[in-house]
Amino acid sequence: MEPSYLKLCIKLCLILCNNRRERERETIEMEQEKAVIIVGAGPSGLAMAGCLSRLAIPYIVLEREDCFASLFKKYSYDRLHLHLQKQFCELPHMPFPPSYPTYVPKNQFIQYLDDYVSRFKISPILYHRNVESANYDEASERWVVKAVTNSNTGGSGEMEEYFGRFLVVATGETTNPYIPEVQGLNTFAGDVLHSTQFKSGEGFKNKNVLVVGSGNSGMEIALDLANHGAKTSIIVRSPVHVLSRWMVYLGPALLKYISLNMVDSLTVLLSKLVFGDLTKYGIERPTEGPFYMKVKYGKYPVIDVGTCKEIKSGEIQVLPAEISSIRGSDVELKNGKSYQFDAIVFCTGFKRSTNLWLKGDDYLLKDDGLARQSFPNHWKGKNGLYCVGLSQRGIYGASVDAQNIANDIKSFLW
To answer: How far is it, in rounded angstroms, from Cα 397 to Cα 54?
Structure first.
């Protein structure tokens, strides 16, 4: 090859590379200025983006993980099904396919979310963006959001700024996995997992496994372990309502015709008839009704999918006290009893960190990251600040929030 021709090729390559970098820089700058900034690309964030897409309102989605709906795609157990009937779990403007079962399994729900993103052309979603701060600038009347490109998930670790007239907090109720401090936990000789790390009980056959936490995840993980031959124990330290799927469906339907107290009384009666007296197995029932507790505290009843049968048969042992301390494989409870386990699965929920990065908000969100205002006025803050999916009303509530917010933003822009 002639030297002059080689030099020309090199020069052309450099020009093309510089042009590509310039286009990338311009694209980033365009993305950094949008009408709406959405923080979080879970179902709530996708619902919000879908509603804005239908109205042709420009937005950007910032997501700290490397994919949307990461809780379902990366951090949920294999046997997971949506606990409510599919009509209560739809995102706005797109029902589930008729072929989907009433209670949608995880893989089909993920496919539904993939189809939702495609249908509404949800873009841009910028991944690996961990929001560090969000401030409202009075002078420019816009939100300034600073995010680090999360090096833990593939980002470069650089700080970026984004600007928008509106900010939507869609970080969800299940943000940061929480494991309580337990004396001696670091000395435990076996496996320690949070529920977000648990996939299947298949690898725990013939092992003594302790499940800590008796919400829906804890109960279902305990069932999965027992079904795979693990010697399973579960800590149930607080009273809990146990209902069947059809009871959970019946309750809201009856609320259209009779009072909350009457619905709760009827539901508790049905629960006693179906499940019997669970106190002799270590499960106490709360004095307040299941739907009252859902409305007042956002506390869901346990929707039984077979765990009670295994508890009654002795396949799952209920332990009624918290962990006091751990030494090696010995786990001592606060009632003084001690047990040996090969693994512990903490189904102890999540903490939210919105209060650490959202600055100047004393109206919309509480310190725990949930909505401060009561339903139905919980979704709208001040200065163009909104939240979606933070009222403890599930995917259905997030879908309603997203539609309300999109319409409200539309009223300001048009």
So the answer is: 19
Q: How far is CA 380 from CA 25, 52, 262, 389, in A?
A: 34, 16, 32, 12
Mean pLDDT taken over the chain:
91
Strands of the sheet with 316-319, listed across from one edge = 191-194, 343-346, 208-212, 231-235, 316-319
146 residue type, one letter: K
The position carrying tokens 């157990």 is 77
Taking a C-beta distance cutoff of 8 angstroms, is the pair 242, 235 a contact? Answer: no
**What CA–CA distance (Å, rounded) separates 261 from 273?**
19
Mean pLDDT over 146-167 rounds to: 86
DSSP string, 365-412: B-TTSSBSSPTTS-SB-STTEEESS-SS-HHHHHHHHHHHHHHHHHHH
As a dihedral over the C-alpha atoms of residue 265, residue 271, residue 272, residue 274, rounded to 10 degrees, the angle is 140
Query: Is residue 285 a contact partner of residue 241, using CB atoms and an 8 Å limit?
Result: yes
Strands (E), 244-320: 302-303, 316-319
Q: State how far the Cα of 175 lies from the Cα of 157, in Å rounded to an integer.
A: 21
Whether the upstream peptide bond of residue 180 has omega within 30° of 0, thus cis, is no
Q: With 80 as the cut, is the pLDDT of residue 364 above it? A: yes
User: With 80 as the cut, is the pLDDT of residue 281 above it?
Assistant: yes
Map tokens 């989907």 to a residue.
100
- Give the pLDDT confidence score for residue 228 in this predicted structure: 98
- Find where tokens 């804890």 sit: 218
What are 340's two structure tokens? 């040996």
- Report helix, strand or coil for 136: strand
What's the rounded mean pLDDT across residues 250-257? 91
pTM for the model: 0.89
